[in-house]
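Sequence in, structure out.
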Amino acid sequence: MPWPFFAKFPDRNIKPTPVKATTPSVPPAPKPIVLPTPKPVVVQAPPPLVIPPLVTVVSDPHNIQLSAHFSYLELVTTEHREYIEINANDGMKYIENMRRLCNEVLEPIIALLGEEPRISSCFRSPALNTVIGGSKTSQHMEAGAADQLFKMPLKTAFNKIMASKIPYSQLIYEFGRWIHIGIIDKKMHPGKVGQNLVASMVNGKAVYSLVTKAI
């Protein structure tokens, strides 16, 4: 192919347009992140540890076993319920009489009869004795006597006790309802030693009769 003489050559004297160097744009520095100032946290101190005092378990001072079959509470109990607490407190001064009554009289009765009596009355506080109209010289006021109930016929129990060698101040068959018996106390009751009596109501009054043989 013939050279194309008609082709135009670029003008070699034409200088290229200088290109200005551009400085690359730098992005602005980010704004610092300002965190909110935290509010002070108020921490309440825990309440002081309160250690409860040691609990000392104290048994009922009235819960005293006087003998194999009888306790203090049995001997101060009364059917007049409002006087039980008074009896329990006042009776402590006569606890030795109660021990004698249980060991010298009541326990031997169990051995003799083969039956444990139910005590309907033993110690009487002055207040209780006044309410029931009891004698001011009664051995009940010193816890030296007890009224007993039995499953066996009362007369049978009375006669067997009277024929035994159990020491007592008075043995009384009272109104066919219970048997009264007391300890010998020659200092306080010198005239009451081994007496056997039967109590009955005559014209509205209690009459006590001495007996010397079985009833």
